[in-house]
Amino acid sequence: MLKNTEGLKCSARRRSEAATERAQSAIQRMQADEVEINFRSVAAQAGVSTAWLYKTKALRAAIMKARHTSPAAAGENPQHRQRLSQERIVATLRLRIKILEESNRTLTEQLESAYGRLAIPTTKPDSARRLHVNDVRVPMNSKKKLANYR
Q: Shortest CA distance to 33 belongs to which of 70, 2, 84?
């Protein structure tokens, strides 16, 4: 049985050519914008996979050449990138500390208000309930007398 696969081959070839054009135009746009060029960024711009870019020899060579000659890559050194990374980490940690301090402050205020509500006696004067050991008692006479100290 003979299968007609010419239509499939033609469709695959057209899709491959369209992806190649998208990748080449993405490389040209990125060079014009002076953006750092690497396989991942070109793949994201062109809407193709990085594996396909690595597999296509012409595009692979173009990206490798553009990667080493791009102004973004030429101006950066590893120490500069490391310092930027450390600054971002410090900024992130400072923001996290600020958020946690605010959360701690609100929780402390809620705890203080809860303690304040517990300190107010909740027993009703007409209540038949007996006082419990843990009930808060308000002293009736807060003045100290000399007789209490003898």
A: 70
**Average pLDDT in the chain:** 82
Q: What's the mean pLDDT in 122-142?
A: 62
Q: From CA 7, how far away is CA 9, in angstroms rounded? A: 5
- What does the pLDDT read at residue 5? 85
Same domain? For 63 and 106 the reply is no
Domain that holds residue 90: 77-118
Mean pLDDT of the 49-77 span: 81
Residue 62 near residue 24 (C-beta atoms within 8 A): yes
Look at residue 54 and tell me if it is in a domain.
yes
Alpha carbons within 13 angstroms on the beta-carbon side of residue 52 total 15
Pair 21, 69 in one domain? yes
Q: Whose CA is closest to 31, among 74, 87, 2, 1?
A: 74
pTM of the model: 0.45
Handedness of CA 138, 141, 145, 150 (dihedral sign): negative
